[in-house]
Amino acid sequence: MSEIPLHRGGGWLGIRIALLSLVACSAPGPARPPATVGGAPATQQPPATAVAAPTGPAAQPLKPLIYGSVTGTANYWPIFVAEARGYFTEQGIEVDASITGSAASAALALVSGSIEMTASNPDPLVRSIASGADLVMLGATVDPTIYGLFGNKNVTSVAALRGQTLSVGGPKDVTAYLLTRMLEPNGLHGSDYDLIYAGATPDRYQQLQTNAVAATLLTQPYDVVARQDGFPLLLYSNQYVTVLPTTTIAVTRAWLGDEQNRTRIVRWLAAVYQASQALCDPSQKDAMVRILADTAHLSDEVAQQTYAFLVEETRSVKCDLRLRPDELQAIVDYIVALGDLTPPLPDPSRIVDSSYLDQASARVR
Q1: Ordered strands of the 194-197 beta sheet
Q2: Which of 44, 67, 111, 166 has the greatest number of C-beta atoms within 10 Å?
């Protein structure tokens, strides 16, 4: 399989550029143009070899870990924290960040070898496994994934969406599933509206800003920005779907067969685990808000509201990064509900492996 072209840059520069216009969205000022943001059973897992405790950043030099993410939403907050606080350096690991633009592209890049690890929506990864890819999921940052359904400024109720054009990420995207689960209890079915597709949240937010759609789904922090910009919030997805993990950390099983790769992934996980613990520590709230604001170029108010929603109110941030097989089963079930998977189905108990996270958490205790 050919490699997938990716945008790479030092640290989170690509994300920072992609989110720059959120400053304008979240701070008062003059009128502005629309923002640009917004199977087959698995083979036997190689044994998780224990990694020695670190003796400093210079110990056992390792090549950079090529990591792929989709876009700069708050689902990546623990990774922002790990970089901002130097946890990757403390663990003796360097990260070469790549922006794939969509979860499907991330899955394809992982399978092709263009990246070594991804943290992205798990549904394309599950589809890849069902098609024969031998992937392992090591953790996740958020459960459930939460999207707000926002109408344009002329739409103030769910009933007003009848006969309108709505936007989701794609025909098989998690947002398509969530939209159905949100609208059907409110009396709207697939024949009652039209759908168009726009990839990730930043693209859908732009559609909303340009009045190209009557409503779309946005995740954090774009939901906060949308509220500030006067777009009506109609529904939140966690009112209807309470288990649905996202930003799933995945590698290939073959890649884990190399000892240095196992060392690198444990160190990466240790840094992000430490960051997740800090993110969930109430005494560090102000610092965590500052990191999100600085990394994503958000106003303090947007960052604070995002923290309040994800960490304090919904508690959807996974403080321990743990991904349980039953949580992944919810992903398999929804893909089946979309008519996109048929037996034999992937077995989550053979896909999820927490042993590397066990080692990682032990490094920072």
Answers
A1: 194-197, 165-168, 215-218, 148-151, 233-236
A2: 166
